[in-house]
Amino acid sequence: MILRKSILRQFKEKKFQYFGVIILLLLSIMLYVSMSMGISTLDNRNDQFKEEYMQEDFHMILANEVSSDQLEEWEKNYNLSLEERLYGDIPYNGNGTTLRLFSNTNKINIPYASEGKLPEEADEIALSPVFAKAHHITVGDEIDVKGRTLKVTGLVYLPDYIYVLERESDLLSDPNTFGIGMTTEHTLQSIADKTVTQILGNEASEEERNAFKSAVTENYSLLKWMNQEENPRIQFVESEIESSETMITTLPLFILALSVFMVLMIMKRRLEMQRKEIGTMKALGYRNSELTKHYMMYATIIGLVGSILGVTAGAALSIPITDLYSNYFNLPSISYFDWDPRVLVIGFFVPNIILLIMTYFVIKKPLQQSPLDLLRPKDTSKGKKSLLERLPIINKGSFISRFRIRLLARSKARAVYILLGVMFSSILLIFGATMYKGMDGIVDSTYKDIMTYNYAAHFKTLQQEETTKGESPFTVAEADIIEINGEKAKEIEQQSMIYGIEPDTEHIQLQTEDGKLLHSTLKNGVVLSEPFASALGLSKGDTITLENAYNNKTIEKEVTGIAKVYIGFSIYSERSEVNEFLGYPKGVYTAKWTEDKPDNSEDVLFIENKQDIIENFESTSSLTRYSVFGIAGFAFLIGVIVLTLITNLIVEENSPSISLFKVMGYKDQEISRLMINVYTPIVLLGFLLSVPIGILSIEQLMNSIVEQTGFAMPVQLSWLMILISLMIILFTYYVSLFLSRRKLKNVSLQEALNKQQD
Amino acid sequence: MSIVLWNVNRIYQSGEVNVHALKNASIEIPDKQIVAILGPSGSGKSTLLNVIGGIDRHDEGEITVHDHDLTKMKDKELTEYRRNTLGFIFQQYNLMPTLTVEENVEVGKELSQNPLNMKDTLEKVGMWDKKDKFPYQLSGGEQQRVAIARALIKNPRVLLCDEPTGALDEETGKKILSLLKYVNETYGTTVCIITHNNGIGEMAHKVVRMKSGEIIEHYYNEEPVDPEKVKWV
Ligand SMILES: Nc1ncnc2c1ncn2[C@@H]1O[C@H](COP(=O)(O)OP(=O)(O)OP(=O)(O)O)[C@@H](O)[C@H]1O
Ligand SMILES: [Mg+2]
């Protein structure tokens, strides 16, 4: 069809409009494809690693040694698979970095060498790739560990250290301060001050696992039992995959909606501009189907160009995203294709189908009008005056204000579009700003306001020795909330702990968000950490039933407060109560908080250094902070495109009146004020609406992932942040005003006169 | 074969009032002739033409065009009828602004099974040398010539022209009229010209006069005058 030629010329003539929607579409698809491909790669690698390298179902640490006969017997009796593994923590480099070395296994948690080979001889070592990279070590290097020279034979991944955390209670992993590696049992024993034997297990059904655990508890002193479902080193990657899924679809869908909406407006506009030509063509005998096909071509081209570019860019961008993930999660790429080809198919077809269907419905009606209707000038008086225009105040004001109101009323779709576009950008901005503030809040309130100790020493056995000044004893054990107000509680996947503390301790200051100290309430009940309360929907006054994992005893307690501890699922009670609950002798404790660094004696299981945790958090959260700037930039980009497109469309639509104004002697600036600045209140309204929506949505998001991540975020937005966001939005708006003013300048005076001919 | 209208009525309902745009109009438009439809503004000329052209529906009466009974046709059949039989020329040229002269004529050509030759047609209307220009680069008269070429190239049996000279000056207008006469003579196309310029009636074989929706008079010219010699009013 010869009409096709007109499409390309139209694209050229209205470069900006079509380019703009194509970019929007591209961004949406790119975002979807890159993030989905990143996540599906992650998912596939995780599944493969888990299965082929026999990830553990659980592991435990016993206080005493177990004979290999005993292990075999257990394997037989409980129909499971068990294997011992040794590990030890070794200081590396002397600046606080810890290297955790493991012995080899061949049944469970089988190490995967991605480069080189696993250590076989004495003084050989393999390191995790992330740690090696962070410390500039390559395969073949010789490194110095505690005065010994070890040869790096390879890079290694462990199936139970996918998210490399030093302690399970840690939030973020930091290869600069902690890493894992593998060496021979002999080398490990000779360089580590102290080694721990873990018993790894898998291939058990849940009942068998539970039965096994009870049996072990009866005969042995169980220092630690960790199920795979509660192990953050294994679970974090899975919760990341799960929680990303909503983001991956909602954000691109929003942008897709914005771009489809824009295409529809442009198409409507095109049809309106060409109504007479369409009428003439129909009079000449063009069929509806032919004209529909012609106008569908616009959407087809936009869709194809946008989706092909978007899918390509997304696929390319997924590579650095996958790299980024592989810095977080230690997953080997076992097979060549890790990504899911479905992502490409969805990324290509879904936007095109949506775009084509929507366009079809929008152009169908105008094209089906009779040729005669199309040939007549559009009857504007036919449409009743809108409610807005009939308001008495409107008809009083000056000509200018009447003109502006009419413009607003006549192009409601544009006003709605501006509102949505501004809201989208503002919500993104506020989302980012809240994240930014929230990161600070987590550290400040959890580690500075509440946890006033410097170190925590956890012991292998129950302690009785009096603590000295500057120390506070506490008892900590695994415990679950099984009932709330008499009804069965939702099961939390992650480990939850009960802390028995001294009410008069100075080393922890349980307080509410308003700063009210909660220690005095402990005699009446228990205090919960923020994530726990929000995951289970608990508040002050609820009654909960606790069950400890040690002897399965239960106890009923009232919740007397929620402390602004934003990390972990913790229950705080009095130490005497907790000891009784656990069946421990009076006065014992399992750990102590200290101000000075405690000695690392035989009895000590591990020492927690608060400063390390904070630094670790800060260094890793800098990534989140950068991504906040990314989000702001993205919001700005979308905002500029959306607003400029729309103001452009408005200028185009009103170009006859604009040139008439020009003929009358109005200046460009005045005309711009007349037509485009009409939307300033809408921009402001959009922003104002976004503040609560942004805060609510981040609360929603945090609540929905609190169960997997185990941390809540203090959602407080400062006025400064709101102001900065508003400035960015206004800046966006003025950039688009500036861009459309150029378009306005180009509207010719002749146009007014030419149009009069019609 | 010719176009025959029998007691055709068209009533527009606009709000409370009914406008009787065509009142019992009965007329025959003979094959291969030029027919001028004259009358003051609002007398129903365009309505008559649109009804014949199948872009408007009549309320009562019968219309047959070359044995097609328009009364019974569905929208789709009307489209096919226009596609195969008719050429339309409007007072406004309605050219596609993004297509060149030649391409605009191509829009008409694509509709026809046996179109005329592009070069011949454009030469006929005197636009061959401007075939690569865009509509905005043309004067009104030139644009109208392109619109005529667009209708003409289909080689239609009937050419319906609504005020084809309405926006043109005398000299250009007359050129357009000569062109229409040439088409009529060369291809045997039936040409209906609507105009409120009474002078144009002199060049037609048959003249129809309308007033307030009624056909008040119709007659044949013994000797149609050359378009160049009509009185321009
Ligand atoms: N869609 C419509 N709705 C209501 N009334 C209409 C419509 N179209 C035409 N009319 C009325 O029908 C009558 C005939 O209109 P028509 O367009 O046929 O006149 P005309 O003779 O072509 O006039 P002109 O020379 O001004 O073009 C007029 O009174 C007009 O107002
Ligand atoms: Mg008319």
Automatic annotation (TrEMBL), chain A:
Record-annotated membrane-spanning stretches: 21-42, 247-267, 295-321, 341-363, 415-436, 626-651, 671-698, 718-739
Residues of the ABC3 transporter permease C-terminal domain: 251-369, 631-747
Origin: domain of life: Bacteria
Localization per Swiss-Prot or TrEMBL: Cell membrane
Keywords carried by this UniProt record: Cell membrane, Membrane, Transmembrane, Transmembrane helix
Topological relation to the membrane, as annotated: Multi-pass membrane protein
Cited InterPro entries: ABC3_permease_C (IPR003838), Membrane_comp_ABC_pdt (IPR038766)
UniProt key word Magnesium: no
Tagged with keyword Transmembrane: yes
Name under which the protein is recorded: ABC transporter permease
TrEMBL record, chain B:
Protein name as annotated: ABC transporter ATP-binding protein
SUPFAM superfamilies in alphabetical order: P-loop containing nucleoside triphosphate hydrolases
Domain of life per record: Bacteria
ABC transporter domain residues: 3-233
PANTHER family: ABC TRANSPORTER ATP-BINDING PROTEIN MG467-RELATED, LIPOPROTEIN-RELEASING SYSTEM ATP-BINDING PROTEIN LOLD
Lineage: Bacteria, Bacillati, Bacillota, Bacilli, Bacillales
A molecular function (GO) term: ATP binding
Protein's UniProt keywords contain ATP-binding: yes
Keyword annotations: ATP-binding, Nucleotide-binding, Transport
Entry annotated with the keyword Nucleotide-binding: yes
Entry's family note: Belongs to the ABC transporter superfamily.
